[in-house]
């Protein structure tokens, strides 16, 4: 890249073709004592009006050195005066004096090296301020000095009160090379987009192609640019007319903008294998922990500092890369020696990390998950108490990372499950779902940090201090304008993230400014083939030492049947409180309950009995009869578990948790399975209780089960004027649906047209200018339930 110097710097003036033709020398001169009086240096005071008389020859033969010296200096002065008069003659018309007068110019600091020398300081007195409006005026004056052989000058001082300009000699300015065709075109486009007063002050070009790669421009558009849509249109205008994709960095206060070529985000970036000290002291290193999770458009790494922002909110619809980003965080923290607890709301997303070093527990059943949240809360309370009683301070606690992943899914499941375990007179709602806000609040002091994951922004997560306690956020994939408002307090941010770019999302900078990022990628150990690149990467990322042992949550024992009188008597069912009091043990102490050991014993051969979907229907014959349990949904927890924790059947409890429930296979079971996939009702009162009655509540569960998987409604043909930001728009030429990424506005070049700016699923940008009455096909983002 080379930098082309600006055409004009602030005080340097270059040649101009606008110098007026100068009058002939035969002008009437006006002797003006002002010249002598004001200059002190008074070079012009002794100058004759016209012509220059020869020096008188000395009459005496005694020609002395003194006389010779006088003759030389006299001659020098004469020649200088002649030069000055020539300059004065040219200068007067330029500074607005109708007749030539020596008062217009004072000269000083003459050099003596050359003959007769030249001045290095010039003071020009002007008459009319009108000349100030002429932008080449100063350059014209400098040009006169240069033509006189006095060299180059630059303006040193302008004294408007005394109407004088002081010039001092300067180095020769860089010779301007004529603009290349590309530069000329880029300048023309900038003036079309930013108005005729826009001037490029710096331009960078690619040395090989000559294409412009950046431009800095001063303009006078002022308030027009307050509109984000206007600014986007200018950007799009650059991209549409110059090679490459452009972005603009605006300084609205100084009327300055820098246009530069965008660099494309990479499709995929694996988490870098940075060297970390596996033995770093958790307490000593806590404050400085930085978790890198992606890069911005300029390749800058974005990091989470949990000591500053204790909790992270991670939002993302299915397929956007939310799980991979959560894995990326998990691996990062595990490498820094943090103990990790995981609530896996989808049951299978974190299975691959169940035996990852420093991951202590992955709760994959509703009972384990409820127990985990209560334990995390208890840990916080325990630590709080220790601080209150003076037994400890915050700095004494090792940090813990708790994933609450797919919280909305978990919440729906837990409400159903609770109906079967609610004790008589127990709270109406499962206590676990109301704990989130208080846990988020206490995270910093207790050093129990939350990564809270859910599919869509929901008003209740952005209410009151929840907003502050989840200042660190990532939204993966594209948000609806409604979701963007909640997540980023702007209906535009994150709404145009291209859907085909997995791992692309929006996060906040250190100054909490939203930016688009590409998240790092981490392989899922469960889906990684041996001897692959991914397996090698996992080996490199795996913490070399396990500092925190694996834990298991022991299923509670059945309660004794205290009033058993006969065989028909049933033991009292376990209640919610029995499950949350479940014992936690070291995994090494209960191999009988260890899912890792069980999985290690899997044969990895395909069981044709369960491979076919028909297995569910029991029509295969030959040993593929479905069990009663197989007909139940894995997350069907409407009945409390009555798992027998029989030592003779060590893994029975985990088996039951992960799939089967006792009971009859019936149409009722299947029905219950179907209804589970339908909308999960918001518990009465809960919504208002938690959102404070706000009306922009987004029930993400209700949305996640719609048939319209892509979250947009049916196709409508509407007038261009009725298109809104966030709509999907069909671009006929491309036969592609794109998202409208600014509010439609008048086109900045042709204001009889309406301009629609867009971004495609594969990260192409564009603008469509069309009459506002013409029709286009759109799909509106689904209005989520309120
Ligand atoms: N950072 C990334 N870079 C590149 N590809 C990614 C990235 N993250 C995810 N992907 C790709 O997208 C796929 C889906 O990712 P992921 O499972 O994380 O989505 P999700 O949002 O959790 O969806 P779901 O909820 O359905 O699991 C991954 O299998 C991977 O191929």
TrEMBL record:
Residues 299-485 form the FtsK domain. Residues 698-709 have a biased composition (Basic and acidic residues). SUPFAM superfamilies: P-loop containing nucleoside triphosphate hydrolases. One of its GO terms (molecular function) is DNA binding. Keywords: ATP-binding, Nucleotide-binding. Residues 1-14, 636-647 have a biased composition (Polar residues). Residues 1-24, 626-671, 688-710 are annotated as: Disordered. Pfam families: FtsK_SpoIIIE (PF01580). PROSITE patterns: FTSK. ATP binds at residues 316-323. Gene3D superfamilies: P-loop containing nucleotide triphosphate hydrolases (3.40.50.300). The keyword Transmembrane helix does not apply. This is FtsK/SpoIIIE family protein. It comes from Rhodococcus koreensis. The lineage of its organism: Bacteria, Bacillati, Actinomycetota, Actinomycetes, Mycobacteriales.
């Amino acid at each position: 890249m080379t930098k082309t110097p600006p055409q004009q710097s602030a005080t340097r003036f270059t040649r101009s073709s606008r110098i007026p033709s100068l009058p002939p020398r035969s002008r009437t001169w006006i002797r003006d004592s002002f010249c002598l009086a004001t200059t002190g240096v008074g070079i012009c005071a002794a100058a004759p009006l016209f012509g220059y008389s020869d020096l008188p020859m000395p009459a005496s033969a005694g020609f002395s050195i003194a006389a010779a010296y006088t003759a030389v200096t006299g001659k020098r002065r004469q020649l200088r005066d002649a030069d000055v008069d020539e300059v004065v003659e040219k200068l007067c018309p330029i500074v607005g004096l109708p007749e030539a007068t020596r008062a217009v110019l004072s000269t000083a600091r003459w050099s003596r090296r050359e003959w007769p020398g030249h001045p290095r300081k010039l003071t020009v007195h002007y008459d009319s301020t009108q000349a100030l409006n002429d932008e080449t005026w100063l350059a014209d004056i400098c040009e006169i000095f240069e033509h006189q052989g006095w060299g180059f000058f630059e303006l040193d001082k302008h004294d408007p009160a005394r109407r004088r300009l002081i010039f001092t000699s300067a180095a020769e300015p860089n010779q301007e090379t004529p603009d290349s065709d590309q530069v000329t075109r880029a300048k023309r486009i900038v003036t079309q987009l930013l108005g005729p007063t826009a001037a490029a002050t710096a331009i960078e070009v690619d040395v090989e192609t000559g294409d412009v790669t950046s431009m800095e421009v001063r303009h006078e558009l002022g308030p027009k640019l307050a509109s984000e849509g206007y600014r986007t249109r200018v950007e799009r205008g650059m991209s549409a007319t110059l090679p490459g994709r452009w972005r603009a960095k605006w300084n609205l206060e100084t009327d300055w903008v820098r246009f530069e070529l965008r660099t494309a985000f990479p499709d995929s970036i694996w988490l870098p294998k940075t060297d970390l000290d596996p033995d770093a002291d958790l307490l000593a290193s806590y404050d400085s922990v930085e978790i890198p999770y992606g890069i911005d458009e300029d390749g800058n790494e974005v990091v989470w500092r949990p000591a500053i922002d204790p909790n992270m909110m991670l939002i993302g619809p299915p397929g956007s890369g939310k799980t991979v980003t959560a894995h990326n965080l998990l691996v990062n923290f595990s490498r820094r020696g943090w103990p990790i607890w995981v609530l896996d709301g989808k049951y299978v997303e974190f299975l691959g990390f169940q035996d990852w070093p420093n991951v202590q527990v992955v709760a994959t059943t509703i009972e384990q998950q409820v127990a985990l949240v209560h334990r995390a809360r208890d840990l916080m309370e325990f630590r709080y108490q220790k601080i209150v009683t003076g037994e400890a301070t915050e700095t004494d606690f090792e940090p813990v990372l708790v994933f609450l992943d797919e919280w909305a899914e978990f919440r729906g499941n837990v409400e159903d499950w609770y109906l079967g375990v609610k004790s008589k007179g127990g709270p109406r709602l499962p206590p676990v779902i109301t704990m989130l806000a208080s846990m988020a609040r206490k995270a910093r002091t207790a050093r129990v940090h939350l990564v809270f994951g859910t599919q869509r922004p929901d008003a209740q997560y952005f209410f009151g201090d929840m907003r502050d306690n989840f200042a660190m956020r990532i939204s993966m994939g594209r948000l609806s304008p409604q979701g963007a408002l909640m997540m980023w307090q702007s209906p535009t941010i994150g709404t145009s993230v291209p859907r085909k770019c997995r791992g692309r999302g929006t996060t906040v900078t250190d100054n909490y400014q939203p930016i688009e990022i590409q998240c790092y990628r981490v392989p899922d150990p469960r889906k990684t083939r041996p001897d692959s690149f991914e397996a090698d990467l996992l080996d490199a990322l795996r913490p070399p030492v396990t500092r925190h042992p694996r834990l298991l949550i022991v299923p509670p024992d059945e309660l004794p049947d205290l009033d058993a009188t006969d065989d028909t008597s049933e033991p009292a069912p376990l209640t919610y409180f029995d499950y949350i009091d479940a014992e936690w043990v070291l995994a090494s102490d209960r191999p009988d309950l260890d899912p890792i050991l069980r999985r290690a014993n899997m044969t990895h051969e395909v069981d044709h009995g369960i491979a076919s979907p028909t297995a569910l229907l029991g029509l295969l014959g030959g040993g593929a009869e479905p069990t009663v349990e197989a007909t139940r949904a894995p997350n069907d927890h409407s009945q409390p578990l009555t798992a027998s924790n029989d030592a003779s059947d060590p893994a029975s409890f985990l088996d039951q948790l992960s799939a089967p429930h006792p009971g009859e296979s019936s149409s009722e079971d299947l029905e219950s399975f179907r209804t589970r996939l339908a909308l999960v009702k918001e518990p009465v009162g809960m919504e208002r209780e938690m959102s404070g009655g706000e009306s922009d509540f987004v029930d993400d569960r209700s949305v996640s089960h719609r048939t319209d998987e892509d979250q947009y409604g049916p196709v409508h043909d509407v007038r261009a004027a009725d298109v809104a930001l966030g709509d999907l728009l069909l671009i006929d030429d491309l036969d592609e649906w794109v998202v409208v990424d600014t509010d439609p506005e008048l086109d900045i070049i042709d204001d009889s047209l309406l301009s629609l700016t867009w971004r495609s699923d594969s990260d192409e940008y564009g603008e469509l200018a069309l009459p506002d009455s013409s029709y286009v096909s759109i799909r509106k983002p689904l209005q989520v339930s309120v």
